[in-house]
């Protein structure tokens, strides 16, 4: 037992040190990535009930020179703790707006883009000023931008957050609550918030056709959201069966591999050009 205990301790310290140094390496690499602009945005289409394009979600990609593609699920949480998320997010917002302008100039339509916001970004005192500046310099009409925030943003500094949400509404920028259902908050708080959309988390959609509980939750979210005048997006729709079920539940907008995967701008141009009018 003593032997085992020591091994476990060694393993633990070793693993721990590894994680810390790994994080330091990643942090340095992130700094270089920011300076060298190693990031890209991919766009995933969102489709409405008629099968028409309702908009796209901008998703960050980091192409590391040696390590290859690094998932945002891995580097965004780190960038949040180091504050590096700020320059990365500002770059992403700017790029998303520019890319939508480029689609419009090519006659592909005024596509609405949803950009993910980090809590840190949302809480900054100059957040709204930066946003206005970006819309001004890119020329993107505010109606074409929407922002995705998670429930956590609203529980941290609820009052400040609600003021910011009202300002966004007066600017005609849409706001979606992302990963809805995974937080601890209830639906009731939604009735006081100036938001336009809820996005049901992928984990519920995943289990939709296997679990009565998840099916009940999804149905409940959709019907309550509709009573509150909100639109509902289902994310992570992967099967025809899930899609049909969601159509039956009156879900408004669908996003997932079944419909389209995230893609670079050039592929999105082709995707849009081939959609039936
Ligand atoms: P999210 O906002 O929930 O984004 C949806 C994620 O689900 C994306 O992962 C997307 O590629 C993936 N996805 C979409 N459809 C399907 C499907 O049918 N099946 C499966 N298995 N996955 C699907 P991705 O691109 O890896 O992004 C992960 C997370 O990183 C995002 O989750 C978001 O929280 C964060 N993120 C991405 N881009 C940004 C950004 O620009 N800023 C910030 N702050 N966070 C971002
Ligand atoms: Ca999102
Ligand atoms: Ca989401
Ligand atoms: Ca999610």
Automatic annotation (TrEMBL):
EAL domain mapped to chain residues: 23-276
Protein name in the entry: EAL domain-containing protein
Q: Which organism is it from?
A: Halomonas citrativorans
Part of the full-length chain shown:
561 to 837 of 837
